[in-house]
Amino acid sequence: MQIYQSLTPIHAPQGSAVALGYFDGVHCGHRAVLGAAAACAAEKGLTAAAFTFELPDSSTLKGGRILSLAQKHARIAGLGIEEYQEAPFDAFRSLSPEDFVQRVLVDCFAARELFCGDNFTFGARAAGNVERLRELCKPLGIGVHIVPMAQYNGQTVSSTRIRAALEEGRLADANEMLGEPYAIDWPVVHGKGIGGGLLGTPTLNQNYPAAALQPCAGVYLTRIFLDGQWRPAATGIGKRPTVDSSADAAVTCETFVPDYAGDIYGRQPVLEFHKYYCPVRKFNSLEELAALIHRAAEESKTYFAGENAAK
User: Fold this and answer.
1) Hey, is 2 helix, strand or coil?
2) Are 106 and 203 in the same domain?
3) What does the pLDDT look like over 179-203, one tens digit per residue?
4) Within 10 Å of residue 186's Cβ, how many Cβ atoms?
5) Among the listed ranges 210-224, 240-254, 263-277, which one has the minimum average pLDDT value?
6) How many other CB atoms are there within 10 angstroms of residue 231's CB atom?
């Protein structure tokens, strides 16, 4: 997938089918829009494209980042999008609806077909809606297709609902709405060596950046992609009351990978969260904490062995 980070013409010699949206979680609603654009492009000999935008890390407009940019790009590319434009929001936020259609959709994308949800807005102060998009595109011969909003448990799927599910420990709900497991790929950094030194359970530390959404504190059954293969693991997110009870203790994300001893500091392995296992609590001894970590790791091995057997 070719990624453009400014308003610039994409490569679309026959024109493009464009998915429009923010796509912050690449959830099942976003997937429907992106997949529809890719399918149309394949059918009509167009370029499968997507237009979105990037907010600065300090922005609170959309809430904490659900996926890293790398994860977002990988998931969108996996849906068949070939040309992807992710301009800074400030590059086009002041455009009128008419200018947005001409300068972005026509000049940059040579758009022939557009796909979006029925809540799509565009232009300065969100002045344009889907009906206005149809009005502006009709004389240009550009088709506008409204993709039905995805539903989960009787309500529309949204990134807001996914954020709430992750923050409340409802991982199963979040993963259903995302369409695949919630995952991170933050860099592996050095910790305090407590896992390997005192507990006998060396961990990989992938601490959350400030702009990212942080899920509910707890222990999770996870799997991590290391050395070309997925490995079962157990991950703890939160403060570590057993080893640090201070009020300003740091929140960490630590993963124990049983039977693995490689050095991956500085790398960014993908870590998928599959099941919420238990909350974080203070133990009476380091031995009790180590026992929990080992139980969670064994449970993860069993869980993924069952998953593989079911395939």
Assistant:
1) strand
2) no
3) 999 999 999 998 655 444 444 567 8
4) 16
5) 240-254
6) 19
Rounded Cα gap, residues 125 and 263, in angstroms: 49
pLDDT digits (tens, 9 = 90+) for 85-126: 999 988 898 999 999 999 999 999 999 999 999 999 999 988
Q: Which domain holds residue 131?
A: 2-152
Same domain, 19 and 93: yes
Q: What tokens were used for 6?
A: 């400014």
The burial class, CB within 10 Å (0-12 / 13-18 / 19+), for 306 is: exposed
- Let me know whether 106 and 208 are in one domain: no
CATH at residue 137: 3.40.50.620
pLDDT of residue 196: 45
Same domain, 262 and 206: yes
Residue 109 neighbours by CB distance under 10 Å: 24
Q: What is the DSSP string of 114-141?
A: EEEETT--BSGGG-B-HHHHHHHHGGGT
Backbone dihedral angles phi then psi of residue 47, each to the nearest 5 degrees: -90, 130
Mean pLDDT across the chain: 89
Tell me how crowded residue 67 is: count the other CB atoms within 10 A of its CB.
Answer: 23
Q: Could you give the number of structural domains in the chain?
A: 2
pLDDT one-digit tens code per residue, 27-53: 999 999 999 999 999 999 999 999 999
Answering whether pTM is above 0.70, one says: yes
DSSP letters along 225-242, please? EETTEEEEEEEEEE--TT
Spatial distance between the Cα atoms of 6 and 269, rounded to a whole number of angstroms: 28
Residues 71 and 68: their CA atoms lie apart, in Å, by 5
